[in-house]
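Good day; I would like, with your permission, to put a structural problem before you. The record follows directly beneath this note:
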Amino acid sequence: MTETTPPRLAADFIGIRNVFSTIMRTQYSPGEIWSIDAVEFNGSIYMTTHTNRKLTSKTQHDLANKYEIYGHKIKQYITGGDPDDGVKPNKEYRSVVKLMVDQTSLLFAPLQDCVDPGLYKKNFKDLSAFVKIKIAKIH
């Protein structure tokens, strides 16, 4: 930090690892157990969550792992990746978004899977070029 750098980020709450979406979807995910860790530092509260699905058997656990791997593979294929390449689960885009809710500021980094090159602008002011792909679990 330089002498002119403010001592805190300009946000009241900083969400790490999908903490705000976990909170918002709680009523729709009764089988998910989560906890939130929060720490205050220089006037901002940093929050992260730890989730744990209720899996009652090894078969359910193995099936959940397969869904996660297949989800990454499908996203890789949809975004122009070679279907013969290995799974690359950490190839994604991040942006930092500041949102005001009444007088409270939230700062978080949502995931995006790809960018539409026709809409992408270098100034990053317009996030409409970023795309998030959702994969449904089909049994």
Remarks:
- The longest helix spans residues 58-78.
- Strands lie at 13-16, 32-41, 44-53, 93-94, 97-101, 104-108, 111-112, 114-115, 130-131.
